[in-house]
Write a structure and sequence with these properties.
The protein is mostly beta strands. The protein has strands at 2-6, 9-12, 17-24, 32-38, 44-51, 57-59, 67-72, 77-82, 91-98, 111-112, 116-121.
């Protein structure tokens, strides 16, 4: 499984960014795709996840209502639309995949892409 994240950058508080994750290497119908972030000096934190098959979504409380995860099964892409960004959203964002049933758990993820840095200035 290969996961390639992109779309990070520098944005002012209140702005928006869309992260993309290109997935390849197998059929993902049984997978849940997630976005996990790691801020400087902090542990990795679950952000959002989506089941590949039904498109069921999960969000961390800190991003609920501001972030939207989606997937394009035809293109094997997963997206994270981030609106109303805050300085505390600054982190490296990772795309990850799991076949486990608890996508909010970081340890459930079997495959990880490289991160993409999101910096939100105040």
């Amino acid at each position: 499984v290969q996961l390639q994240a992109s779309g990070g950058g520098l944005v002012q508080a209140g702005g928006s960014l869309r992260l993309s994750c290109a997935a390849s290497g197998r059929t993902f119908i049984t997978y849940t795709m997630g976005w996990i972030r790691q801020a400087p000096g902090k542990e990795r934190e679950f952000v959002a996840a989506i089941t590949w098959g039904f498109g069921t979504t999960f969000y961390a409380d800190s991003v609920e209502g501001r972030f939207t995860i989606s997937r394009d099964t035809a293109k094997n892409m997963v997206y994270l639309q981030m609106n109303s960004l805050k300085p505390e959203d600054t982190a490296v964002y990772y795309c990850a995949a799991t076949t486990g049933g608890r996508p909010q758990k970081i340890l459930a993820y079997d495959y990880w892409g490289q991160g993409t840095l999101v910096t939100v200035s105040s």
